[in-house]
Each structure stands twice: as C-alpha cells, then as structure tokens.
Write a structure and sequence with these properties.
Pfam families: NB-ARC
Helix content: 40-55%
Strand content: 5-15%
Shape: elongated
Radius of gyration: 22 Å
Protein name: Disease resistance protein RGA2
Number of domains: 2
CATH topology of the largest domain: Rossmann fold
Structural class: mainly alpha
Keywords: Leucine-rich repeat, Plant defense, Repeat
Low-confidence stretches: none
Distance between the termini: 34 Å
Largest sheet: 3 strands, parallel
CATH class of the largest domain: Alpha Beta
Strand order of the largest sheet: 1-2-3
GO molecular function: ADP binding
Number of strands: 3
Oligomer: single chain
InterPro entries: Apaf_helical, NB-ARC, P-loop_NTPase, WH-like_DNA-bd_sf
CATH architecture of the largest domain: 3-Layer(aba) Sandwich
Mean pLDDT: 86
Length: 233
C-alpha cells in the first residue's frame, strides 16, 4: 500500500488513516484521529472543544498525512468545521479523502478530484488469473474460456475479479459454469457488479461461518469488538 511506503513515511509525520463511512460524527472522528496519533485509546467522555484543541496541539506545524477513507457525508458545514481544525499543520500537510460520491469530492477538495476508472478487461482478466490459477502449472483451456466470460460480467471492478478468482481456485469446471450462468448476475441496482460477486463467496462459507457472519451483521458499521467478548456472545 502506498500509505505504508517508506518514502511516504519519511515525508509525512504523523500519518493517520481513518475509516469514516456514512456515520459521520465530528467528535467521534476527531477522537479517532487523536487516538491514532497517540497510539492509545481515550477513555471517558470528552466534549468537542477539548478534543479539537488536543488535535490541533498534535498537528501544530506538522507535515501530516490524514487519509479519510470511505466518506459519504455531504454536509458542507460539518466538513468546513473540520477543515478549520486541521489548518494548523505545516506547509505540505495533506488531507486525502476517498469517496464514491462526486458531491463529497467537490465539498472536500481544494484540488481537482482524481476519479478512478474501471480496469480494462485485459487487466481485470490478469487479476482474476492471479487468484484463480495460483499454483497451477497447467491451465485448463475450458476454464480459461469460462473465466473470460465471467470477467466480462465483473465490469472492470478489481474486487469482483479478485473475489471470484479466489472463489473458483481449484473448483471443478461445473462450478465455474454455474457461476457464469448464475441468475445472480441479473440483480439490478447501483452496486450491480459487487453484490452478485460477493454473494457466491458467502454461500461457499461453511455453515458455522455463515451464522457468525450474519450475527456480526447486526452490529453497526465499523464497530470495534474485542475478540474475547465476541467469542462469549
């Protein structure tokens, strides 16, 4: 990952990566940033103002890199407040946001947003092959033909190619055919490529893991759970 590259580490300090998701709360977000910098949890309730002051002291005159991943909130006022807090950094400090929403990019950015395009079919196929034919000296030409049809349905989405490639590794030809011809591909919606891809992976899990997966789904997104507590549940 570029974030962990030595050149990035030498250029920026501190480096912070925060998953924001759709549950935007300024106090929770600032607390998470402070905890990441200090490398320890903050216990007890704290008001927003002391948290803001704490963060500014940690970032003051620092050439920091802050990655806000998976941003969904479109409230311009909230982001303006956060930007004001972050302005204490040194020249060259950088805030990078990732989002699927163009409006968020225009609200957050002072630079032109960089829009990632889908993979070409050729690159999508190469990514699929790396997972589907790993450790195989001889590749079945029938699987190649079926695999290329599956890759066409991935829509150039890397997650789709990687997930299906890993799922079909060492599987029989009949299972490849079943995935290719599955009615799941006919599902509609904005996430049309992702959900049909992930559903077979879920159905191939052992029953006990499927039950665990469903149980964990009742918790809010990005909930941090201690493993001992999860086991006891």
């Amino acid at each position: 990952m570029v974030f962990n590259d030595q050149r990035v580490t030498e250029h920026f300090y501190p480096k912070i990566w925060i998953c924001v998701s759709d549950d935007f709360d300024e106090k929770r977000l600032i607390k998470a940033i402070v905890e990441s910098i200090e490398g320890r949890p903050l216990f007890g309730e704290m008001d927003l103002a002391p948290l803001q002051k704490n963060l500014q002291e940690l970032l003051n005159r620092k050439r920091y890199l802050l990655v806000l991943d998976d941003v969904w909130n479109e409230d311009q006022h909230k982001w303006a407040n956060l930007r004001q807090v972050l302005k204490v950094g040194a020249s060259g400090a950088f805030v990078l946001t990732t989002t699927r929403l163009k409006k968020v990019g225009s609200i957050m950015g002072t630079l032109q947003p960089y829009e990632l395009s889908n993979l070409s079919q050729e690159n999508c196929w190469l990514l699929f092959m790396q997972r589907a034919f790993v450790y195989q000296e001889e590749i079945n030409p029938n699987l190649v033909a079926i695999g290329k049809e599956i890759v066409k349905k991935c829509g150039g989405v890397p997650l789709a190619a990687k997930t299906l490639g890993g799922l079909l590794c060492f599987k029989k030809e009949s299972e490849w055919e079943r995935v290719k011809d599955s009615e799941i591909w006919n599902l509609c919606g904005e996430e049309n490529t992702i959900f049909p891809t992930l559903r077979p992976s879920y159905h191939h899990l052992p029953l006990d893991l499927r039950q665990c997966f469903v149980y964990c789904a009742v918790f809010p997104k990005d909930t941090q759970m201690e493993k001992e507590k999860l086991i006891s549940l």
